[in-house]
Specification:
Blueprint lengths: L13 H7 L3 H44 L5 H5 L7 H19 L2 E3 L2 E3 L2 H23 L2 H33 L4 H58 L5 H13 L8
Antiparallel strand pairs: 1-2
Length: about 260
């Protein structure tokens, strides 16, 4: 007993028949949609790789960060987490912290501290890094949103134009029969079909990626706050004003140079 062969997809040749009978305007529309589809798929593949890499690297970084006890432990260990947006925030905050410790230190009980102004500079550096990483994650998403919104309308334009040409030709030929209309209508409808084939994958990919990017950016915002607080607890001179004045007067009486408070 022989099994019936499976009918391959598009074996009926409907798309081929429709494309052959499409008008020049319809073929141009299909060509434009194919170009948009290729561009859209290149963005989809690139962003999937980028987001997957960012997710893996971020999980590794957070695992190492939660195990550290001090704000500069990861840097001192020499560990690298390339591709992790949170690591870029860590690097930006660490570099600003080291700059403040080098250029504007306040020595308290033999330990180098930074002023509240220096702490604000660290927070600004973290915010700028978070904004930069969020923009990098969102780069290219405009292509997908354009494909989702524009694909069906471009296809509809090609279809309406093709139907208009078909009916105009039938009117000129005075031959309003189905066999005369069918090829032109089929040729017109292919633009809508291609438009939907462009928009549907882009829509699913866009929704998935927007959710993933939102999750990553929320993690970045939360991490920026945690890291800034960790730096403030460890490296910021948090003495009250009376203690600072007393300390400055004591240093002055002893004839020692005092860092700016």
């Amino acid at each position: 007993m022989t099994s019936l062969p499976l009918t391959p997809m598009l074996a009926s040749g409907a798309l081929e028949f429709a494309f052959k009978n499409a008008t020049l305007e319809g073929k141009i529309t299909v060509g434009a949609l194919v170009f948009v589809s290729l561009f859209s798929w290149s963005v989809i593949i690139t962003k999937i790789i980028q987001l997957a890499r960012a997710g893996r690297a971020t999980r590794k970084f957070f695992s190492a960060y939660h195990e550290s006890r001090e704000a500069l432990d990861i840097h001192r260990s020499g560990a690298k987490f390339d591709g992790a947006p949170a690591y870029e925030l860590y690097t930006a905050g660490r570099e600003e912290l080291q700059f403040q410790l080098t250029k504007h230190p306040v020595v308290v009980k033999g330990e180098a501290k930074i002023t509240q102004t220096g702490s604000d500079s660290v927070r600004v550096a973290l915010e700028e890094a978070a904004t930069h990483e969020a923009l990098a994650l969102e780069k290219g998403m405009i292509v997908l949103s354009t494909a989702v919104a524009g694909g069906p309308f471009i296809g509809l334009l090609g279809t309406v134009w093709g139907v208009m040409e078909t009916f105009s030709g039938i009117a000129r030929a005075n031959a309003a029969i189905l066999t005369a209309m069918a090829p032109g209508v089929a040729g017109a409808l292919i633009a809508t079909v291609i438009g939907l084939l462009v928009a549907i994958p882009a829509m699913f990919a866009y929704n998935f990626m927007v959710t993933t990017i939102r999750h990553l950016t929320q993690e970045l915002d939360g991490y920026a706050s945690r890291y800034a607080n960790q730096i403030e607890h460890t490296y910021v001179d948090n003495r009250d004003i009376e203690e600072k004045i007393t300390w400055a007067l004591t240093k002055s009486e002893m004839g020692e140079n005092t860092p700016a408070i």
